[in-house]
Each structure stands twice: as structure tokens, then as C-alpha cells.
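User: Here's a chain of 255 residues. Predict its fold as C-alpha cells.
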Amino acid sequence: MQDSIESGELEAKIAFVFCSREYGETEATDIFLKMVEDYQIPLVTFSYQKFKSRVKPPESEPEVTFPPAWRLDYDREVMARLERFHPNLCVLAGYMLIVGPEMCQKYDMLNLHPATPGGPAGTWQEVIWKLIESNAEQTGAMMHLATPELDKGPVVAYCTFPIKGQPFDKHWKEITKNPLDQIKKEQGEDNSLFKLIRQHGVARELPLVVSTIKAFSEGKVRITADKKVVDAEGKPIIDYNLTDEIDEQVTGVIL
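Assistant: Prediction complete.
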């Protein structure tokens, strides 16, 4: 995103980056946080794991509400820490927490989800296994308005790609040799079909994010005060399919 801004492709500014992890929690997060700081973008970190460990009820008193009370309290603390920022639009990418109703109301937030509209919900791992289990023909990625309901907010933009045909078919044949539960247990994310679907999805996710934000910056898409996604004329957006545009960008990237 920052590279697109600096190249002039995208007219925008990243007001801040918020991360629900802090330095020292994972190596990948540390690399990401260092990159943000190298770009001199304001960075706010607040570990949800540390927060959760302080407020989580003992196992003898399991949390039965959904979302659990600590999640709502965490959102309120996050909003307090972001009070000095006034973003026009927020993007949730790799943010693995379900955002509560108060934060959804306060900010216009787009969530990146690794599936097509109407496709599987859940983490990217869960999505891929559900695609394999259902013998799906295609998948994709979408940007949708974040709502308290998991991965069900109004769709802003999306792209698709087939997972049948070349180069997928030979990997599907491998799946049929053993029960899927056994494959998941013995191979997990190392399964060749799983990895190939993930590779093709990841290659499209960042171009989709940039293209979607570009549409907002050019006034082609906007979010109304009552949380509806509309075009420049104020008409509801039903099908903003960016597949051709994204395919053009990933041509030559995926072998």
C-alpha cells in the first residue's frame, strides 16, 4: 500500500497502523512492525493475548457469552488508544479478531477475507479446508464492510480464480487417495493442494486491497452514514468484480 502511494498510483495517506500484537510475540510480527517504523508511519500496538490473560475468567468459570466480555473491553481500549487519529477508512488485513459492534459503528472498516461472496467464513486455513471438503470449483478474495457478524458484511469488491483445471487437477487427484481427515492430520498445511490454493489466493490479496482503496480515493465507492456501500451516484454496489484487473496484475507472478 505504501509503495503504491509513493509511486503515485494511489492518492492516499496511511494515518496509522494498529497491530494487536507487540514486539517479541512472533518473529513475523516483529518484521512487520519494523517495516512500519521504517516507513515512519505512526504505529500503535496493543497485545490482545496479554490483555486476555489479565481478564479471562478461570477455567472453572468458562466464558459463555459471544463475543466474550473481554473482547468488547479490548475494543474500547483500542479505540481509546486511537483517539488522536481520524481516518476516513480503516482496513483490516490479517486482523484475526472479530470486531465488536461499538468499533464497527465508530469506524468505516473494510475487512480482507480470503473467499468469494457467499463463500466459506473463518480463517484462511478454515476456508481452504472447506473448499477442499466441498470439492469447490473456484474461490477468490473479497473486501467487505466489517460488521459484528463474521465475514458477512456488505461486499465492496472481490476477485475470483478457478481451483480446477491446470495446475490444480493433479493435486486434486492426490486428495482422493486418502480420507481427508487423515490428510489433514498427517500433512496439514503442507498438503500440495492446500499450499497451491493458498499461493494463488495470497498473490491476489494485496492487489485487491490496493485496487479497492484506489476506488475509494477516486470516489467510485463510498460508505454512507448508515453503513451502506454505494457508488459515485449513491446507488448500492451489488457486483464490483475486479477479477480481470487483478488477473492482469498477477500474470507472471504465479507460476
